[in-house]
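Q: Protein A?
A:
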Amino acid sequence: MSSDIQLVREALSFIPASDRDLWVKMGMAVKSEFGEDGFELWDSWSQGDRSYNAKDSQATWKSLKASGGITIRSLFKEAKDRGSVDESRRHARPESAPQLQRQAIDLPTQHQSELERIETAKKAEAILKVSTKALADHPYLVQKKIAPMDTLKEIDANTVTKIIGYSPSSDGEPLRGRLLVVPVTQDDRVSTLELIDGDKRKSALRGRGTKVGGYWSTEQLPEEGEADFTLLIGEGVATTISAGESTGFIGIAALSSGNLVAVAKAMRSRYPAAKLVILADLVKSTGDPDHHATQAACAVGGMLAVPQFGPSRDTDKKDFNDMAEVRGTDAVKVAIENATIPDKQDLGKEKKTISPRGCPSSVSLIRANDVAPEPIKWLWPNWLAEGKLHILAGSPATGKTTIGCAFAATV
């Protein structure tokens, strides 16, 4: 049962709207209680701040989640702490109930997560405001042999550190020099940034949940609901740029394989009649398409495009950007045109790697039907006969294999 709107309006009159974090938190509280019907109440209170902006108010309200964890109790606590409100009058006639004190309520952890997301978005906007257009000579773009997009920017790493108060890093190594700035969008608003330096180190801004379901697009997306439209959805920036340049289609980067399903579902909701093509990266060790891509294609009724390198694939080559470099853009275009509907029966079949103890890590991969480096001391014939065995042999450079540690099998 919802609180009396007049009582909430009265409570808000004790709370200043000038503190942005508090303003957002009160919006979350109102939305948790009244849903979309609470906007007018919250917006009316917001206008008490001289910096009120109607567009910002509408956009912020849209970004708030009714289930974000901050409830109407938080609003009553803020009002009580500032002088007066009687939360016991909830659901009662405002003029008939006495004013009572109530116990303070601890805000749960998810409240902080929501405020953290809001703070991260503010820092992202601050960085974008002073960033410049990405240039073709940016080291990362040069290494990947891709052109800058209008939706990419760049900025010096020291400037980023000054804005956000810490040095973005990857695996403990701080990003340096010119950083490529990749805006990550959630619900049509920038939620965070992915930053990439010339050494291909990548880092997103700190903030829990700011990348989940978020994406970067090679160009501005069409209006919602457009029908005759093909959209490519891949994992990384370079992959989607190469695929887009090869086909002329817009590319969407989920920025992690685990985010592919969420992004694909968001695009399907936005474009119900569009053709969605999921761009798979290959698993480095096996050459199979990453199962996250298969899941994403199955989840939205999309197609699965798999890069093709032939039987002599370098195991370091695994995505469409690598394919464009090795085989050219025409081959990439053909591979995407040959995208197929994935077999749902393959979903959920997790591959398990079995490796004897003490097996050395400096090994090379061969498949059951490949010519093995010599000498191979030991095989498991039954698995090999079934075509399921992937053998890890000793280095072909030395031709040596250690007995008992010569293989790992994928079944």
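Q: Protein B?
A:
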Amino acid sequence: MAGKMNIVAVLGSPRLKGNSSFIAGRFLRTAKALGAATRTFELNKLSYRGCQACEACKKKAGMCSLEDGLKPALEAVREADVLLLASPIYYGDLSSQLKGFIDRTYGFFTPGFRANGHKSRLPSGKTLVFVLTQGASPKHFEGVFERYAGMLKYHGFTRSFLIRACELVGPRDARSHKELLKLADKAATEIISSRRKG
């Protein structure tokens, strides 16, 4: 194993101690205990805009040209081995905070990306971890993970994990669901161990 695994977490909940953030925190603590380096960005604390469709990232900029609170997070993703995205499901989709972040990853596409197979500026072989929480039953909003994980495959996230928690009505309900914490521990352990084997 060459160096520590670099994990970047992007938390999309406006509740910084809510369910998705709590589960993400458990994953990060386990990964850190296993030797990973971790860095966390809480989007609701940052000041940033959504994609401006300016196309500067396809010209001289080389990546998203907006100089705002999201720039360090996007730069960290470039160097990350693992990207953890955490969000509650609001109105059948990701939080607006996390959706805005994902829109800004458009800057990672190279010029002419549509014609060249959606080529990304990011190196391939990255791992994606999605933590999604919702008050609704499991039969609702099943396609959210597949939609966004499918998009991020273009940026080199060839391996993905889902930690999905349903029927969490209160913002602290995850704390009493031991099986969710075990899922977070299992995912972190599997990801770190695969790096060691490699």
